[in-house]
Q: What sequence folds into this?
């Protein structure tokens, strides 16, 4: 199995044939299934239940900082554009109030082993404001000081104050994630993100010199005016910095969903063939440089925790992506943040004013959520195994959930037949094993087990999901 995990076959014809819109499965069910009749009362009750000794787990915190200094036209995140840093100070005060509302619901013996600040642009917050926020978290939760902790933050190299990197390490952050996307000036101009190589590499060095242990860089293929020559140059510059992890996302052009994307000239986007060639190039360059393909756009060096966790079959997936600490209750803080507490998902209000008003009134700012039923848990576990390990142990699923696999998943197994025929996976009494040819299409395979998926979704006028490639 470990040998199969290291194998990855790029088959352009298969990718073209099976490419379709689908969820990224950072959760199952995915966020569009959340309901507004699941609110603060239900979240509080589920949180209290998870404090019981039999179900008590460590905690993971996600803090969303929505502000950016300027818009990147490709972005589909929930963000607000402003250069007024005082808005960050006001927002951080509301975050501290939300922390004060949420923390008492959880047993204070529960250790926070994972912390992530995402955005937006978390370094929109000044050093002083970040210090105050971390002080509040230390007072409200039991933040881990162990080497196993995973405390990370996303950084925009264009706007990081000089003192930030050393401050991050002092505050306990041991991982940073930097957006790069592409260093080609024509591409950067088209997506409104002018970022020099020097800015990026200097920040990587400063973070490492300051004591940050791990660096992740994000790239995107499928952007306007991208060429093989330009993207190869970007990739080689990236690997020369030897980041511990690299994410290579496919750009999803959905201008009717994300208004900022209306600034992108659709005619400048790579065609289907060039888009596939860009992906193939990324896989080739990273593989030749010693990076392992984890799955779903993610690569890591062989000694990285993600690789070791995958080899030990302990890797998991949550709203922050692949993680070695997903066996936690995830608490989302801030506007639009998503939580996974016990057998439930919940999401904060997406509108800043509504979120602020709820927090100011002393209410948990829950917009919508979902209580997981037995079927959700069965399918979620199976999809998680596919996404993280490319393998589902049928006997283990049957034993744990008390089902007969063939009967329970009869419809899904029927949908899998074209994937089996095309050699994307093997299916026998032992389990489902994704092949080297199928690893880039694991989302398409997982979709066969998604009972919520609208079979007409791929043909919708406004697609809900990005394509799988």
A:
């Amino acid at each position: 199995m470990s040998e199969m995990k290291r194998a990855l076959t790029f088959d352009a014809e298969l990718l073209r044939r099976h490419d379709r819109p689908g969820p990224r499965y950072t959760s199952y069910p995915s966020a569009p299934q959340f309901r507004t009749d699941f609110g603060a009362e239900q979240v509080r009750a589920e949180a209290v239940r998870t404090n019981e000794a039999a179900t008590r787990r460590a905690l993971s915190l996600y803090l969303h900082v929505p502000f950016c200094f300027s818009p990147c036209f490709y972005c589909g995140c929930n963000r607000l554009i402003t250069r007024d840093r005082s808005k960050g100070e006001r927002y951080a005060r509301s975050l501290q109030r939300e922390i004060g509302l949420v923390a008492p619901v959880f047993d204070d013996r529960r250790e926070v082993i994972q912390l992530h600040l995402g955005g937006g642009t978390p370094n929109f917050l000044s050093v002083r404001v970040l210090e105050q926020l971390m002080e509040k978290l230390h007072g409200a939760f039991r933040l881990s000081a162990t080497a196993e902790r995973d405390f990370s933050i996303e950084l925009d190299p264009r706007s990081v104050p000089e003192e930030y990197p050393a401050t991050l390490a002092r505050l306990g952050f041991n991982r940073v994630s930097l957006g790069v996307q592409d260093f080609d000036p024509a591409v950067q101009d088209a997506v409104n993100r002018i970022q020099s190589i020097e800015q990026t590499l200097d920040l990587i060095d400063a973070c490492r010199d300051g004591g940050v242990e791990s660096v992740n860089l994000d790239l995107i293929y499928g952007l306007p005016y991208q060429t093989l020559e330009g993207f190869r140059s970007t990739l080689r510059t990236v690997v020369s910095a030897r980041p511990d992890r690299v994410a290579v996302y496919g750009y999803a052009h959905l201008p009717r969903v994300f208004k900022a994307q209306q600034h992108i000239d659709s005619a400048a986007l790579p065609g289907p063939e060039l888009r596939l060639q860009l992906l193939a190039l990324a896989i080739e360059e990273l593989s030749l440089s010693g990076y392992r393909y984890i799955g779903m756009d993610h690569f890591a060096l062989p000694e990285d925790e993600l690789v070791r966790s995958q080899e030990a079959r302990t890797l998991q997936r949550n709203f922050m992506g692949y993680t070695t600490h997903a066996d936690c209750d995830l608490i989302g803080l801030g506007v639009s943040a998503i939580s996974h507490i016990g057998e439930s998902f919940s999401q904060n209000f997406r509108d800043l004013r509504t979120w602020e008003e709820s927090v100011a009134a002393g209410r948990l700012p829950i917009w919508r959520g979902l209580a997981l039923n037995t079927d959700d848990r069965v399918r979620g576990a199976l999809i998680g195994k596919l996404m993280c390990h490319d393998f589902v142990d049928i006997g283990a699923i049957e034993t744990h959930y008390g089902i007969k696999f063939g009967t329970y998943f009869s419809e899904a197994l029927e949908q899998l037949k074209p994937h089996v025929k095309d050699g994307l996976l093997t299916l026998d009494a032992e389990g489902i094993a994704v092949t080297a040819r199928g690893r880039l299409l694991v989302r398409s395979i997982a979709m066969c087990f998604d009972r919520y998926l609208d079979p007409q979704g791929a043909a919708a006028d406004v697609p809900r999901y990005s394509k799988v490639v």
Residues 13 and 276 are 10 Å apart (CA to CA). The chain has 17 helices and 20 strands. Residues 1-5, 456-460 have pLDDT under 50 and may be disordered.
